[in-house]
Amino acid sequence: MISLRRAAVGVLGATMLLAGMNDGFQQQACRAGEQATAAVKKPAAAKPVAIDSRRELFVDYFLIDQLTGTRLELNHPINVGNVFQFDKPWEGIFSGYVTVIKDGGRYRLYYRGRPEAGADGRPGECTCYAESSDGIHWTKPDLGLFEVGGSKHNNVILTESPYTHNFCPMLDTRPGVVPEQRYKALGGVQSSGLVAFVSADGIQWKKLQDKAVFTQGAFDSQNLAFWSEAENCYLCYFRVFANGVRRISRTTSQDFVHWAAPELMQYERRGGPVPLEHLYTNQTGAYFRAPHIYVATAARFMPGRQAITDQQAAAIHVHPSYYKDVSDSVLLTSRGGNVYDRTFMEGFVRSGIGPENWVSRTNYPALNVVETGPTEMSMYVHHNYGQPTAHLCRYVMRLDGFGSVRAPYDGGEMVTKPLTFTGKRLMVNFATSAAGGIRVEVQDAAGKPIPGFALAESIELIGNEIEREVAWKGGPDLGTLSGKPIRLRFVMKDADLYALRFAP
Fold first, then answer.
1. How many Å apart are CA 130 and CA 83, to the nearest integer?
2. Taking Cα atoms as reference points, which of 256, 253, 267 lies closest to residue 298?
3. How far apart are CA 239 and CA 166, in angstroms?
4. CA nearest to 479, candidates 434, 421, 437
5. What distance in Å separates the CA atoms of residue 384 and residue 390, rounded to the nearest whole number?
6. Exposed site from 155, 182, 411, 437, fewest CB < 10 Å?
7. pLDDT digits (tens, 9 = 90+) for 360-374
8. Main-chain phi, psi angles of 456, to 5 degrees
9. What does pLDDT average to over the chain?
């Protein structure tokens, strides 16, 4: 342990010499790498992680073996403003449980309309629909499907309670799905169980069958499903209570009708136990650029934790029952099974300035993060719940930008676990400052630099790109190493590494 600590200090000290020397960064990083190779004890052999050509995000420690002077960082989406108002008479201050789906060039938005408080699944709730061509500007089409308040001039797609309480659609990506069932949904409360619906166009829905397809849950919030390419089955994440705490359970199905016995989701993080917190909506989905990774932008609920006074509540006209608690959003990930990774315990989307942002059940994210540009993805967050000003705000992030390995100005490095890949080129999503940079060394499984791919031969990465090819003096081709156990060593200065993948 002492020798390892001394080696680590030596590496960090050598790296700190890089500060303020752009030209010197290359030479000193190479010398630091050579010294570290000589000083650090070679890592113990481990079974390689087979990543093939999948994109891997730095949202957990799945690939990370060693961090020296760097850290795994949670990044926060940026609020770019109000994009959707719950302002129709059939919507109201208790609209909620929002789902956003990107289907080709069209964005679809589904949500509950609920003008008045009351029991879950009460008559008067409805499911509403809006659409957009860019994810920014939304319209509420006059569908004329259901009469609400004496008129069919509305955007309502379902009125049958209790399914309208938490009706949650999905776009079925299962290979071979019939066109009539391209869209699927679940809705229902504990007394009804979850009932399955299907649709060809995402607007006109019918029950898949009258009988509930699943009954073993509390279901008193948004209960979602999606097709998992990685696990080759449908997954459903739903609400349960365990010892009085709002928890999440999971079940699986091959046909969307017959579901397996549920499993209570567990929480893990590197370095210690995970304190139990109330997670109100789980908002779990397969990340669209790396569907083997499930990303959850869950709503964290803190019952009885009051942030505003009675006078402040009166001034913003919040419903009297909805300001005694606070909530925000946290980021969880999963790679399958009944485990969420809670590497990041801190808030992902923090509540904003002003009492209107500190009421009960506000700051709940909509289900799904969607691409809204060549370098950008968006999530939507419910603001001002229980108030006349209830609306959705759009939050933006760079693609793959949930988390990153971050190096400070003084520099540091990250070494991956042994891995195998398929392909010929290493592509990275990264950003540096003008003074910063990243160099990549390819090692064998024991940690020895591979000739031609050592740190001294690495071409420095400078800039800010969603995908850049890594190269060495001999070129970018890694084809001779495909299928062989390797490690990647990233020597970084004032930089973030968001994701990597191997390409043909």
1. 12
2. 267
3. 11
4. 421
5. 5
6. 182
7. 999 999 999 999 999
8. -65, -20
9. 92
Identify the CA nearest to 281 among candidates 334, 234, 326, 223: 223
Query: Taking the CA of residue 377 as centre, how many other CA atoms within 13 Å lie in the half-sphere pointing to its CB?
Result: 18
Q: What CA–CA distance (Å, rounded) separates 262 from 252?
A: 8
Please state, as a whole number, how many other Cβ atoms lie within 10 Å of the Cβ of residue 418. 21
Q: Is the dihedral of CA 69, 73, 79, 83 positive or negative?
A: positive
Estimate to the nearest angstrom the gap between the alpha carbon of 487 and the chain centroid: 26
Nearest alpha carbon to residue 111 among 124, 123, 95, 125: 95
pLDDT digits (tens, 9 = 90+) for 258-284: 999 999 999 999 988 999 999 999 999
pLDDT tens-digit map of 52-106:
999 999 999 999 999 999 999 999 999 999 999 999 999 999 999 999 999 999 9
Give the number of other CB atoms < 10 A from CB of residue 178: 9
From the list 226, 213, 214, 243, the residue with the least C-alpha distance to 296 is 226
Size of the chain in residues: 504
With beta carbons less than 8 A apart as the criterion, state whether 88 and 154 touch.
yes
- Report the chain's terminal Cα–Cα distance, integer Å: 40
pTM of the model: 0.90
